[in-house]
Amino acid sequence: MLRRALCKLRCVTRPRTTLGNASACVTRRQIVTLAAQRTNTNGVLRVGMSAKAVGSVYAREYAAAAAAAVPGKYDWKSVKGFLFDIDGTLVDTDPLHLVAFRDCLKKAGVTIEVDHEFFKENISGRSNPDIARDLLPELTQEEKEKWIVDKEEYFCDLARSQIEPVKGLRELMAWIKSNGVKCAAVTNAPRPNAEMLLGGIGMRDEFDLLVIANEEAANKPHPEPYLAAMRRLGLSAEECCALEDSVPGATAAIAAGVHTIGVLTSQTDAAMKEAGVGQTIGDYHELLDEIESARQE
């Protein structure tokens, strides 16, 4: 069964896109409505789809419409809100997640090699229940839930002494606060993990809002976590910028109509551009330089 499940992860029949030639009249509401129709209640497009496959379908379905709604070059003079993913975006945790998944999957009897490519393809940006469903099909639901708890505890043990913010984040956060701009963290991570990571880099109180996807109607790549963040901040998509390091995360933000920047801690520039991000950055020094330059013009 495991071999068949893994085959599903790699061999996906993608639906024919209906928005590939979307015109400029496509509205943000249509993007969100279509996103909701394409997913089930857990925010998963289809059982057995990898992170890359899910992201690719969303990108092809909604990228043209999102591009029509969000300008390719963002107006930094009007930004009122930053929406950050956490894992890999605020904190470069992907190497630790890879170790945690590799060791815990091996303990559960999974013999496939969990390397960087497998991690990017099947794990990065996805929720724990979806990963456990696809990679551990022989476990009961109760066993899956226990495996998730054990894996998260193992990850936290690894992360507590090894986490650092992505370069330039502290400087960007200082700029955000000094300019009265709002910010939210929007994540698929469980709340204890999210709070531990923010606390670990000394930024738990720096965010106006923490949105946990599994406490909302759907996980990323569904846009609902980002829509929820904007509702609670009282901001529109045009007033916000999202920062993401994964294809599913970027897909969620783009489908919510938000200008999205890819942070290149885990994915390649090509992969993030294929997902539809407006631009990519190596770290936050690069972004802050751009913002300050644009606001001086």
Please give a quick description of this structure.
This is Haloacid dehalogenase-like hydrolase. The protein is of the alpha/beta class and 297 residues long.
Which CATH class of the largest domain? Alpha Beta
Q: What structural class results from the helix and strand content?
A: alpha/beta
* Gap between N and C termini: 60 Å
Total separate domains: 2
Strand content: 5-15%
The name CATH uses for the topology of the largest domain is Rossmann fold
Q: Compute the number of strand runs.
A: 6
Average pLDDT value? 79
User: What is the overall silhouette?
Assistant: globular
Tell me what you see in this structure.
β5, α12 and β6 form a beta-alpha-beta unit. The protein has helices at about 1-10, 30-40, 50-70, 95-105, 115-120, 130-135, 140-160, 170-180, 190-200, 225-235, 245-255, 270-275, 285-295, and strands at about 80-85, 180-185, 210, 240-245, 260-265, 280. The chain is built from 13 helices and six strands. A six-stranded parallel beta sheet has the order 3-2-1-4-5-6, with helices on both faces. The protein is α/β, with parallel strands linked by helices and about 300 residues long. α4 (about 95-105) crosses α7, α6 packs across α7 and α8 (about 170-180) runs parallel beside α13. It is globular, with a radius of gyration of 18 Å. It has two domains: about 75-95 and about 165-295, Rossmann fold, CATH 3.40.50; about 95-160, DNA polymerase, domain 1 (Orthogonal Bundle), CATH 1.10.150.
